[in-house]
Task: structure prediction
Amino acid sequence: MSKSNSDKIYDVAIVGTGPGGSSAAFYLSKLGRSVVILDKEKLPRRKICGDAISQIAQKHLTEMGVLQEILAEKKGHWAEIGGLISPKRITYIDNSAEEIGSHLMISIKREIMDYKMTLAAKKEGAELVDEYNVKEVKFSEKHQLWTIIPHDEKQKKLKAKVLIAADGAVSKIARSLGIITSPPQAVCSSVYIKAGTHQYKEDGVCLYTQDILPGYTALFKEADGDLVFCCYIIPGGRYKTSDLQHVHQSFLSGEPYLSKALGPKAKIEPMNSAPLRLGGVKKSYSNQLLIVGDAAGMIDPLTGEGIQYAMDAGEIAANILDEGFNKNDLSEKFLKKYQKEWMKSFGRDFKWSTRMVKVIAKKPIFIDAFAQLCNDRGPSYMIMWAKIMTGSQSKLSFFKPKLALPLLLTAIKLSLKKK
Result:
């Protein structure tokens, strides 16, 4: 990967090459700003994720030219046949793509997608430096510059007018600066299951069980025939984040649907895990500093989805920083606008997700009712729900009569039947 010019003062230094960091680098570079983007690992690198990419994220990938490359190289798999299994084992699996004539989700391995996003930023002019492990960052009030100091003393220190922390849910940078003080609240696991060793026929299914709610597990098919299995433990249920390995293994070894889908010869890699910071942080800015993506908790508390929100935030950050440079104002007061913009765009939705998590944890019958309604009404109802769950529509859309009333009535019917 390219080496950075240590004597240069960049407009923006970005730590982290995930969707948030790479999106910010792409949009800033497109606006003509000088950018260096750093990653501690050698690229391309594995990322723990469910690999399911929503329509909003697809729009950013298209803007970058990344989705076109992935499709041309046949490295993305459109989700067509899929659905869910509810706590009462009500199963709905169908082809939603036929109903709408398009696809809500595509599976792309994050190792492929993230790398192509960083290369897209590089094509726009960003300098990309991998294997650059940041030891600390320092801000000079006198010179109004950030200095980025690497662990490796052989590597050069870098200087920039603005720093973007896109360094993941733990965010060493945000914590070292005292902007974020709380730990991540949730955790997820991810494993690949080798193509040719499983018996899975669908494209993607989410499994909800009474004991894991409000968390869930999911299985998605990749373009190369591999499967990705992921497990999300979200606060509010029976399990703690420390229970992840037990929950992950118990699903793979004993859950009936998974046992049938994987078969007896499935080659499953060892479990990988990653923390999740949910619901958005209260402050994601400071003097000449922005926090983007997982580092700022831009993950939906209901779904564990963070890719599209990181991309949205990267574009918002780029536009606001460009405005700040033009006005010669990169102060904390001005950059507060960034917090307001992403909160308006998607952050307020997280509050409704948090409320819904509490409802689902206490009343899992609503998941059962949804699965039953999908069976009764077909793909159209599933699509309405899926668009809200994946962020294409506001969570408030759940309370529209055409969704809420049938769900409530079906939940009541199921409750009465149970009695």
Q: What stands out?
A: The chain has three domains: 9-51+112-182+278-355, 186-276, 361-418. The chain has a mean pLDDT of 94.
